[in-house]
Amino acid sequence: MDFDSITRKIESLLPTMIEWQKGLTAIPAIGPENGGDGELNKSRYLKSIVEILSPDTLLEINAPDDRVPCGYRPNMVALFKGAKPGPKVWVLSHTDVVPPGDLNLWNSDPFVALVENDRLVGRGVEDDQHGIVSSLAAVAAFKDLGLRPSHEVGLVFVADEEAGSRYGLSYVLRERGDLFSPDDLIIVPDGGNEEGTLIEISEKSMLWMKFSVIGQQCHASTPEKGLNSLKAAAQLILDLDVLHKKFPLIDPLFSPPGSTFEPTRKDANVPNVNTIPGKDVFYLDCRVLPEYDLTLVKENIFRICQGLEQRMGVRVETEVVQYAQAPPPTSSDASVVKALEEAVKYIYGRDAQPRGIGGGTVAAVFRQAGLPAAVWVTSSESAHQPNEFVPLANLVSDARIFAHVFQYG
Ligand SMILES: [Zn+2]
User: Fold this and answer.
1) Residues 199, 333: contact at Cβ < 8 Å?
2) Longest Cα pair distance anywhere in the chain, in angstroms?
3) How far, in Å, CA of 204 to CA of 328, rounded?
4) Which residue, 206, 211, 207, is CA-closest to 308?
5) I want to staple 215 with a disulfide (CB 3.0 to 4.6 A). Which of 14, 227, 237, 351 is the partner?
6) Is 161 noted as a catalytic residue in this protein?
């Protein structure tokens, strides 16, 4: 088949992609954790687009969730038969978005997608509607030309990616894991770099800890009558830095190449200056190389806390807020990696590299199930930001790259 006709076809689909983007952006799909009512309406609109492409199979896999008005979180799988039997190519995108945040930081209404300087701007246009519309356009190009791609293609649209995927991909794999095979090529277009050369195949483990340092509140003029929790918390933050020495491995697949242990959020303590606080709460975000067992990291943290308790007389309560042991990486020899490398070379003339990242993509759910997934997109790196955007050129080039992968081998 002449791939040039596919690439020309995809170029001609740009106005359609923009129209889809506008329709999708206009329907906020925010999960209940972020105060939203879920993905139902957006998913219905998306289904109307998918139906135009007449998939050979269209599955709706609804994850029960009584926190949202309709009582479930919608997931959808559309399968398009290929010209040959063999492994499927999957593209998995998510329908949910994060809230816009401070509206004053936006130059326009986040839920009205605008074209501006060859970019689309709006909440969700990059994360993850870029993946949604580029994968749809890749399929549409074959359909419009009356062709079947070499591989069978599966488009998966999941809910709940922004809050852990329990009602999204995890549910889909639990209910219909039979659809996927370890030989398949699985792309998650939800991360990458601006050049389109980052193929993410490995993630660090993630451990988020909450620390409550309990001292005793008193008047600031008589510190001897209390126990300053802020001072102790500050000392604990410094003590925790020793984790870098306890877990020193370096892996050049990642940037930064080592594990990270960063204090992040700090809750308010007393409202006034002349009170010594009796309780301070802060959080630590740990991103740990997959070679390490997170339980060991936790044990070390407990020991550091005990040391502080003995030295400073405070009590330290800890709570695990997030705990995700990284699954084994996708092999850099996996078909999905090879196919993406070839496609990026063909479309961009650039060499893509398999790499590791700091953690937290939905691809980990695939890897946990023994399925080799790669996270790849030509990213504007504006996800979750005000004035989130996607260059129009990326919608087109990424659709071409998906189409190229559909033809791999
Ligand atoms: Zn995303």
Assistant:
1) no
2) 83
3) 10
4) 211
5) 227
6) yes
Residue 71 scores a pLDDT above 90: yes
Q: What are the backbone angles phi and psi of residue 232, rounded to the nearest 5°? A: -65, -40
Q: Report how far ligand 1's centroid is from the alpha carbon of 383 (Å).
A: 7
pLDDT digit string, tens, across residues 254-313: 989 999 999 999 999 999 999 999 999 999 999 999 999 999 999 999 999 999 999 999
Distance 198 CA to ligand 1 centre (A): 16
Q: Decide the pairing of beta strands 198-203 and 353-357.
A: parallel
What integer is the mean pLDDT of 87-96? 98
Cross-strand bridge partners of residue 207: 286, 323
- What size, in residues, is the chain? 409
Catalytic residue chosen out of the listed positions 39, 65, 96, 184? 96
Q: Where does residue 46 fall: left (phi above 0), alpha (psi -120 to 50 degrees), or beta otherwise?
A: alpha
Helix (H, G, I), strand (E, B) or coil at 265: strand
Q: What confidence category does residue 150 fall into, taking pLDDT thresholds of 50, 70 and 90?
A: very high
The rounded distance, in Å, linking the Cα atoms of 34 and 160 is 11
End-to-end Cα spacing for the chain: 13
pTM of the model: 0.87
In angstroms, what is the span from residue 129 Cα to ligand 1's centroid? 9
Angular region, 48: left φ>0, alpha ψ -120 to 50, beta rest: alpha
Under a CB-based contact definition with an 8 Å cutoff, are residues 206 and 360 in contact? yes
Cα 142 → chain centroid: 28
Distance 127 CA to ligand 1 centre (A): 5
Helix (H) or strand (E) holding 280: strand 279-288
pLDDT of residue 101: 94
Least confident of 152-156, 227-231, 346-350, 355-359: 355-359
Decide: 270 and 220 in contact? Cβ < 8 Å.
no
Q: Strand, helix or coil at 332? A: coil
Residue entry with tokens 């609109």: 45
- Taking alpha carbons only, the member of 186, 195, 132 closest to residue 408 is 186
pLDDT tens by residue, 11-42 = 999 999 999 999 999 999 999 999 999 999 99
Catalytic residue among 161, 203, 285, 341: 161
DSSP per residue, 155-171: EEEES-TTTTSTTTHHH
